[in-house]
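batch_manifest entry 22 of 60
target: DUF2513 domain-containing protein
source organism: Acetobacterium malicum
requested by: lab member K.T.
priority: normal
notes from requester: please return tokens only, no post-processing; we will run our own comparison against the previous entry in this batch. if the run fails, retry once and flag.
--- input ---
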Amino acid sequence: MKLNHECIRDLLLYLEDNLLFTSHLCANDLEIFPYESVDIIYAAARLSEAKYLETTQMSYSHDTIPIIHIHSLTWDGHKLLDNIRDENVWSNTKSMVTQFSSVSIGIIDNVSNKIITKMINEHI
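--- output ---
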């Protein structure tokens, strides 16, 4: 399955707006237009695996899709979101990374950080 970077960004933005400190959200129940549930669940699972989200996951033997409860964004999750939140930064980041056939979330985080730093330096 392919990891959708747009879905990752939109999921992080959604979680920041809707996830309360004292509760959790189930990735399996989220509806984020225009993504299918399986894309959202897959993005949540990969973000958890990369330590951008704190989650608990349950799998039942008859289900192939895990149930993912999202408790919070981690420090790195907030950092990633802060780096890719701005539409201009996100657009520039996508423009840079789409030149390559495969780019990890870590690279996207790194590239967006450099783009922000460059934009700030140009205004100093």
